[in-house]
């Protein structure tokens, strides 16, 4: 009887303390350690996919972005010069290093047809570690 109690006690300790620690440890090892805010995704709207392709190719060629996805059609509703407008545009989703966002913005502003172009960026707080590492390997430090 005492042996069964000890076995149950050990099993309970394993389930409640040891196993959760092992699972957490394995999860940390498999996900790797990624610095929050080291990478960003920038969003840019463009009047057409052709303009988006031109800007996207330039960003990747100049090592300002690892990847540019083009969403071919979004509808934008906005106020401009006192009037409400509704336009079809394409959306660029650009993956880069946070340290390169200023240079990326300069490049877009110099190559974009709009008087005031949208370039906004958000830090990537979490993601697939090999993918984030690839961004870092592809886009050099500022």
From TrEMBL:
Any Pfam family matching the protein: CutA1
GO molecular function: copper ion binding
Gene Ontology biological process terms, A to Z: response to metal ion
Similarity comment text for this entry: Belongs to the CutA family.
Official protein name in the record: Protein CutA homolog
Gene that produces this protein: LOC106115682
């Amino acid at each position: 009887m005492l042996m069964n109690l000890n076995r149950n006690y050990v099993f309970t300790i394993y389930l409640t303390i040891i196993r959760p620690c092992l699972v957490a440890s394995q999860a940390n090892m498999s996900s790797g350690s990624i610095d929050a805010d080291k990478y960003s995704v920038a969003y840019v709207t463009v009047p057409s996919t052709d303009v988006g392709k031109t800007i996207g190719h330039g960003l990747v060629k100049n090592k300002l972005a690892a990847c540019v996805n083009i969403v071919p059609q979004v509808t934008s509703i906005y106020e401009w010069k006192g009037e409400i407008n509704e336009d079809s545009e394409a959306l660029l989703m650009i993956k880069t290093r946070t340290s390169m966002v200023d240079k990326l913005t300069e490049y877009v502003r110099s190559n974009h047809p709009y008087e005031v172009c949208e370039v906004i960026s958000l830090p990537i707080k979490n993601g697939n570690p090999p993918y984030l590492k690839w961004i870092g390997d592809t886009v050099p430090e500022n």
